[in-house]
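Q: What does the assembled structure look like for these inputs?
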Amino acid sequence: MDILLAIAIMALGAVVLGAALGFASIKFKVEGDPLVEKIDAILPQTQCGQCGFPGCKPYAEAIAKGEVDINLCPPGGMEGVQRLADLLGREVKPLEAEEKPKQVARIDENTCIGCTLCIQACPVDAIVGAAKQMHTIIAQQCTGCELCLPPCPVECIHMEVIPETLENWKWKYPVVAIQPVAARPSAKEAA
Amino acid sequence: MLAKLFKFYGGVKPPSNKTLSNQQPIRPAPLPSRLVVPLHQHIGGTPRPLVQAGDPVLKGQKIGEADGWISAAVHAPTSGTVVEVAMHVRPHVSGLESLCVVIEPDGKDEWITHGPADRAAMSPADICQFLQEHGIVGLGGAGFPTHGKLKATPGVPMAELIINAAECEPYITCDDLLMRERADDVVRGIAVFRDMLQPTQVIIGVEDNKPEAIAAMKKAVEAQGETFAVVPVPTLYPAGGAKQLIRVLTGKEVPGAMRSTADMGVQVFNVGTAYAAWRAIGHGEPLISRIVTLTGNVRGAGNVEALIGTPMDELLKLAEPNPDTDGIIMGGPMMGFLVPNEHAPIVKTSNCLIAHSERLFPPKAPEMPCIRCGACARACPHELQPFELYWHARAKDFGKTQQYHIFDCIECGCCAYVCPSRIPLVQYFRFAKSEIWAREKEKKAADEAKQRFEFKQFREEREKAEKAEKLAKAAAAQAAKKAAEAAAASEAPATEQPAEAAADPAEAAKKAAIAAAMARAKAQREAAQPKNTDELTPEQARKMAEIEARRQQAGIVPEPADAQPATTETKPE
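A:
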């Protein structure tokens, strides 16, 4: 008799807890994968496709699934790899491609024929122009992804490194100056 | 006058070295060979140039228009010709260039027409506008446009207006000499600020190592019947920091996150700013010159009134620098910096030039490891923990530096001054701060790029959907049109062949359409007449008739070519 009671109590407990869990899983369901969002926040959002994915989000999704390495994003640099490694607890790996300084695209407006191919290629709508009208790049919006270079039939787009100005100048990391040891021979001579 | 002064935490007492330069009266600096006036001399928007190469300018003529509210106009310091508007080196640690107006003086020093402002007819907003138009910015160091500070925060009564005349940095004596010689105009300027802000109390804080200046100010205040309190404050670096001076004079602690002290009913102006404001309001003179201390490794140290845009090396020559001078420090020895290019011009915030030599400023012994003695924490006037900040800044762990309130650091240099390991702490903090700013900017740009990318994707999807919808609509319309046409076509033959039409109207319509097309083609073919049959000679006509006769005999053509075809009546019309 006792054993039946025990089984009944346990069964009741299982039903109640199961119902609670089932309710919670519906009520507190998280839309989307929060890990993808976190990874996406670290990626530089250049949408350049250098990682082999069409944009930063798909790459973030692939990383979250554990399908690809974390070192495929050249615009993010080694720092981005480091931060991804910290977030995911993975090993830091050297970048696949080399790191480049930040650049923006520039259209040679004399050569531009107004074909609109670059406008279609730009992932962030940073190119202004219309058919048979000169195009130009909004430098502030350009992420430097270089996706507009291949479609241009007259090769009038080139990349320019952003120059250092008073607006973007940064204090440098203090370096410890190494003192020259020129005094040593004379000390020897004196001795 | 005041019952009690308060104290701020920490601080240091470096040798003041002020007697070097405060013994002589202010001298006017001679006109330099050329003036390089940077357009961006203050915090805020870069003024837009109003002149171009070749333009003649008069002294006090506006050459740069303020860009936005937090910005101030820039004026020609003397009369002459604009040589160019181009990139020139700025007095900045980076040694980078910015847009400058280069003026070659004509030696006449000819003013534009100017006169005092009619203050009685001006509203506070007009006075703000007037000060902005006359290029008045804070002369204490940061260069915040003055008109931006002349408004009390709504809902907060303005309790104290503080005039910062502490001048706590070693070597600098420009405010000292200004108060000794031009106290009357300074007091008038303070009265303008007082009228604008309506504070309950005006306090002029002067460090007690300037007794002559204190006496001169007290005399001027009394002579003008004002109620300003001239309060000597103990000499302790950095008593001239705005937050420290507020603490010493009022006992109020400014919260670290507070952006404007007006939010707690206190506003602070530099004494030089008050003077410049009065030159503008009382005389109509824009800010085109300032008093600069020339000192350090020189024989003739003193203060000069120099035009904005005077090259530093040219100005320092007035003080006869010793031959072993190897650089110029702009600002004081605590917060100033060695200018990378000595041709850089004087700007509105250049209060002092110190001739640098290894004798005066021996090179720092090499940096040693931190021994965690805590001396920096005892010296920090903001009660921060510089050693903790140093660890995290050095490790580039910027999140941690923010947790330790790196943005409360005023970079006064007290911590580095007392550090027994000679660690350049302030450099680490500046590095960390600018990295954090850069990252925030990058993050913002990335967010914006993401938003634009997502919108583009959304737009492309929408366009695709719209196109598909359009195509579907067009296809439907085409089908409807065909059906209508077919219906119309099927009605015509139906009159002739009702039985067939009734049996299969669609088939009949198709057949009718084909028949009609064939008839049209035939008609077209027949309408094309031979073109060379007019104006024939009788000989040719006879030959043709013969040929036709032969052809008819052979049975090739059943009828003559010009005869109307008998099939016309089969046309549906």
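The helical segments of chain A are 2-27, 34-42, 56-65, 77-88, 117-121, 183-190.
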